[in-house]
Amino acid sequence: MKAKKWLAVIGVTTMLVGGVLTGCSGNNNSTGNESGENVEITLAGWGGNPSETRLLKEALDAFEEKHPNIKVKHEVISDQYMDVMKTRLIGGEAPDVFYLDAFEAPALIETGVLEPLDGYVTDDFDVEDFEQPLLEAFQHDGVTYGFPKDYSTLALFYNKKMFEDAGVEVPTTWDEVREVSKELSKDGVVGLGVAPELARMYYIAESLGEEVVKDGKANFGHDKVIEALQPIIDQRNIDKTSAQASDVGANWGGEMFGQEKAAMVIEGNWAIPFLEDTFPDVDYGTTELPTINGEQSTMAYTVAYVMNGASEKKEASWKLIEYLTGPEGMEIWTSKGFALPTRKSVAEKLGFDQDEKRAALVAGASYATVWANGVNLPTIMNNFNNQFVSAFLGQRPLDEALKEAEQQANREIGE
Prior knowledge:
This protein is α/β, with parallel strands linked by helices. The protein has two domains: 3-152 and 302-370, Periplasmic binding protein-like II (D-Maltodextrin-Binding Protein, domain 2), CATH 3.40.190.10; 153-299 and 373-414, Periplasmic binding protein-like II (D-Maltodextrin-Binding Protein, domain 2, 3-Layer(aba) Sandwich). Helices cover 43% and strands 16% of the residues. The chain has helices spanning 3-21, 50-66, 81-91, 105-111, 132-136, 160-166, 174-184, 198-205, 223-239, 253-258, 271-278, 314-324, 327-334, 344-349, 359-363, 377-392, 398-414, and strands spanning 39-45, 70-76, 97-101, 139-140, 143-144, 146-153, 155-159, 190-193, 213-214, 217-218, 242-243, 262-267, 284-287, 299-307, 369-370. Strand 9 and strand 10 (217-218) form a beta hairpin. The radius of gyration is 22 Å and the shape is globular. The two termini are 15 Å apart. 46% of the residues are buried. Pfam families: SBP_bac_1. This is ABC transporter substrate-binding protein. Keywords: Signal, Transport. Belongs to the bacterial solute-binding protein 1 family.
């Protein structure tokens, strides 16, 4: 659903839940939970792999053991998660607590359907322990609407044997990436696998100091953004040392890397268990993303637990959020490394900050750009992706493609 369609629903949503929200913000509620009465709350999210499902169940079981009068009904929404959630919010049938991706957060916060959480926070819930960029993704005008449950940044994955055979060092700058890619590209292997989409290109696009989104509108047609992205285009079409996954018959960067069709890819934590399970013989390392103009940067993708503002069981709902995003619940959920903990103390306790494969991802959390920027980002993303791919494939000049895409995005936003 495009952003403008969701925004068109805001009035309906607010009208439906406005009466409930009045007088129900903060921790003013009547759940009966404080008096020890039994209560059932619903937690909704999308599905995960079997191992993640078991970890979540373990965390929920531990929560119920601590709070025997609170039962949690876990609901999995497998398809079209946000469309389903928006429909249920409009219809007054949304769960008490649910997952919210940072990318979707600004639009949903603007509707007023989420419960502000600051009023529930006590001194023993250490907010400073969260990686700040991740927490800020769910704040608006100084108000917190969600606490991040996990995240991933991006790191450079490199094939150790290919680097050794080529006699090159692991690059620490983007200029070095382009140079070593020339040595690594041979025998059907490209030096660098690229995902040509805004979610991956965002930090590169802003590396010369210009914003991709400015005053709520697309700004990726700016000359400095185009200049920042041009090397990505040139590496594929001039150097012939990079490719996207589909160019080599793969579905995504992790598969491309596992099949050893790319010596380097830029991927997140999700690639680590995938490579361990699917391509266990590939000897690889990870490192923080190469600097651009001397500056460290990366992307971060994060999801929070949020509370339905219309919930009639707010105190119990907060207890669940407090546990799952607290040290104990977060340690259970992230213990196997399928997701990274948003609390610094938990990352340290589990050793992820020193982990051979994950340390680079954890290190990037403090300076990452979170994949979220206002209610119009979905429209901006769609138009960018449509035209950036055409430039990446050499079908048209980058400046022409992005300027046209920017105009189209801003027309749609204006509508």
